UniProtKB/TrEMBL annotation:
Entry annotation: catalytic residues: S258
Domain Neutral/alkaline non-lysosomal ceramidase C-terminal span(s) in chain numbering: 515-682
Pfam families linked: Ceramidase_alk, Ceramidse_alk_C
Protein's recorded name: Neutral ceramidase
Species per Swiss-Prot/TrEMBL record: Calyptomena viridis (Lesser green broadbill)
CC cofactor: Zn(2+)
Family, as annotated: Belongs to the neutral ceramidase family.
Gene: Asah2
Length: 685
């Protein structure tokens, strides 16, 4: 008989939020605003407890750009009111996958308001509620079970996007590694004591930027596609997003790692721009963009996602190394703008107040910068005028000296109106489950930074009687602090270094702090760790530049959900079925319905004479586009990219929305509606 070592629970919940008019979070491109949905976003939660339930650890991976301090503090508040002291800052790890195609606006620090148009409550609420709900589901389904770990190499899925910075690291250090990216995937498999499969967590270092900054459809990018493939395989016969098996593809030290494997070339001339400046002869850096392996970004997303999925599936099926041992977690809040680091017995250095360097505005080969704030719709608005005045403010001599050789663009640590622009108080956190140590880091460690951190943590465990620990880095956790480059990479001041906000010794400070957490776990002295200064929770209303949701209209002699452009009568596999409806703003649905699907694809069953759903808007084969017209009108176009293996037969596409109806000059209500295409047939070519 199988013997259990842990209590395990898994859960998944929707965290998509508003898919229209909200800027997407990741490329910092104010023009990249949501205009529809390619695939829904999910929070995936995993709870591991000792068999006697004395200690628990929660790991959440959510399909969002990063976990913000605001999201974390609100999630912890909700968990406290529901579960008391069971789930707290020390044993709950919240990690973002780092997709660049999810809605933004869920930050309390001012810098992030600029490209996401303020704090957007519906966006924040969707993420917080989705994370909490996924934890609730895992909590309610705890079972006795077992954990297995496996690791392997993923090929053809990443390149280092700052290879010239990487080369600044000592040759003696580089010679120990065969590649300038970490190709290793670490996979944790969960089964219950009867051998029933529960789920998995995979950690692999790659930027989910296969979808580039011209994309306007909300989606979870390459790692989200890997989750989708694994969950579709294990939850047989279920629609996407349904079923009990949960597969998380979580982020790691992805700071300088791109999935755009064909490398950087000039958009205008096609020649390579793999040079230290990532610059083109004509058009400079803005013309230098990296391409993925596919013919377009959708195909690239699938190719990279499938590579990752196939390796995870292989590791999952072969996983035999069992994890046993106690569960523990350690956490501290640290003022990262004021950490003294002992480099050696005689030499102490310090971190700095946060600041961003000039290369931050240039962006990367995955998405060029668009930070020219002086233009656009913010002229003459006193709130944004105040912001611009601070942007143009001069950094203090102290900050300039501390950040050398970084040329400072924004001295965010000295900008405090209307709230601080960047966090000072940062979470450092680590969880140990038997021989697995999860190091939860608040940002994007580069490849070499991650290697140094893992090695330091491992040696700390080694020297305190806990050898052979599997140390894995979970990225984008708890609060966002941009990048963490090595001291040597920092000297080159490319994008990742310019975005290492606490100065040249940021990595050394984190290594010192995480060593302390590892020591406390290994020596069972967690209770002696100082808690540190609690982070602030700013009192912010709904501060946003989003257009307000006003009453909507259908065209003359039409009503919401009517078809404007009908499907064809017949399609073959591989073609695209497309239908356009009289639509309404999808933000209405996000704000009025949880678990709302905008569309279904249904197949007619001759035997029962009824329609059955075969796809929904969580599917990667459907695309939902919203187009705003004038006078309160808008259209919705739904595409179904009919995949190979689709059963022949009769189908239809349905649309579900909500429109705002005016009751009086001051009052509107939200009214649900639906529409359907005509029936169409899928035939053999």
């Amino acid at each position: 008989a199988e013997t259990a070592n842990y209590l395990l629970g898994v859960g998944r919940a929707d965290c998509t939020g508003p898919v229209a008019q909200v800027p997407l979070m990741g490329y910092a491109n104010p023009d990249q605003v949501g205009g529809g949905l390619l695939t829904r976003l999910y929070s995936r939660a995993f709870i591991v407890a000792d068999l006697d339930d004395s200690r628990r650890v929660v790991f959440v991976s959510a399909d969002i750009g990063m976990v913000s301090q605001r999201v974390r503090l609100e999630v912890l508040q909700k968990l406290k009111s529901k579960y008391g002291d069971l789930y707290q800052q020390d044993n709950v790890i919240l990690s973002g996958t780092h997709t660049h195609s999810g809605p933004g606006g869920y930050f309390q620090y001012t810098l992030f308001w600029i490209t996401s148009r303020g704090l957007i409550r519906p966006s924040l609420n969707a993420i917080v509620n989705g994370i909490v709900k996924s934890i609730d589901i895992a909590h309610e389904n705890m079972k006795r079970g077992r954990l297995f770990i496996n690791r392997g190499t993923v090929e053809n899925s990443q390149i280092n996007r700052s290879p010239f910075s990487y080369l600044e690291n000592p040759a003696s250090e580089r010679s120990r590694y065969s590649s300038n990216t970490d190709k290793e995937m670490v996979m944790l498999k969960m089964v219950d004591e009867d051998g029933q499969e529960l789920g998995l967590i995979s950690w692999f270092a790659v930027h989910p930027v296969s979808m580039n900054n011209t994309n306007h459809l909300v989606n979870s990018d390459n790692v989200g596609y890997a989750s989708y493939l694994f969950e579709q395989e294990k939850n047989k016969g279920m629609l996407p997003g349904e079923g009990s098996f949960v597969a998380a593809f979580a982020s790691s030290n992805l700071g300088d790692v791109s999935p755009n494997t064909r490398g950087p070339s000039c958009v205008n001339t096609g020649e390579s721009c793999d040079n230290p400046q990532s610059s083109c002869p004509i058009g400079g850096a803005t013309m230098c963009m990296a391409k993925g392996p596919g013919n377009d970004m959708f195909e690239s997303t699938r190719i990279i996602g499938e590579n990752i999925y196939l390796k995870a599936r292989e590791l999952y099926e072969k996983a035999s190394q069992e994890i046993t041992g106690p569960v523990s977690s350690a956490h501290q809040w640290v003022n990262m703008s004021d950490v003294s680091v002992e480099l050696n017995a005689t030499h102490t250095v310090k971190t700095c107040k946060p600041a961003l360097g000039h290369s931050f505005a240039a962006g990367t080969i995955d998405g060029v910068g668009a930070f020219n704030f002086t233009q656009g719709s913010v002229e003459g608005d006193p709130f944004w005028d105040q912001i611009r005045d601070q942007l143009l403010g001069e950094p203090s001599n102290e900050t300039k000296a501390c950040h050398k050789p970084k040329p400072i663009l924004f001295s965010t640590g000295e900008m405090t109106r209307p709230h601080p622009w960047h966090p000072d108080i940062v979470d450092v956190q680590m969880a140990a489950i038997g021989s697995l140590a999860i190091v939860a880091v608040p940002g994007e460690f580069t490849t070499m930074s991650g290697r140094r951190l893992r090695e330091a943590v491992k040696s700390e465990f080694d020297s305190h009687g806990t050898p052979r620990m599997n140390v894995v880095i979970a990225g984008l956790c708890n609060v966002y602090t941009h990048y963490i480059a090595t001291y040597e990479e920092y000297q080159a001041q490319r994008y990742e270094a310019a975005s290492t906000i606490y100065g040249p010794h940021t990595l050394s400070a984190y290594i010192q702090l995480y060593r302390g957490l590892a020591r406390a776990i290994a020596t069972d002295t967690i209770q002696d760790l100082p808690r540190g200064p609690e982070p602030p929770l700013f009192n912010i209303g709904n501060l946003t530049l989003l257009p307000s949701l006003s009453a909507e209209r259908a065209p003359v002699n039409k009503t919401f959900g009517d078809v404007l452009q009908e499907v064809r009568q017949q399609y073959q596999v591989g073609e695209v079925a497309e239908v356009t409806f009289v639509g309404a703003n999808p933000r209405n649905s996000a704000e009025n319905a949880t678990e709302h699907h905008f569309l279904t694809v249904e197949r007619y069953s001759n035997s029962s004479g009824t329609w059955h759903g075969v796809q929904n808007d969580a599917s990667w084969d459907t695309r939902f586009y919203w187009t705003k017209g004038s006078l309160g009108r808008s259209n919705v176009t739904i595409e179904w990219h009919i995949p190979h293996g689709t059963e022949l037969g009769i189908y239809r596409i349905r649309y579900f929305g909500h429109y705002k109806k005016a009751l009086s000059i001051v009052r509107t209500i939200t009214v649900p509606f639906e529409g359907s295409s005509s029936a169409f047939e899928i035939t053999i070519p």
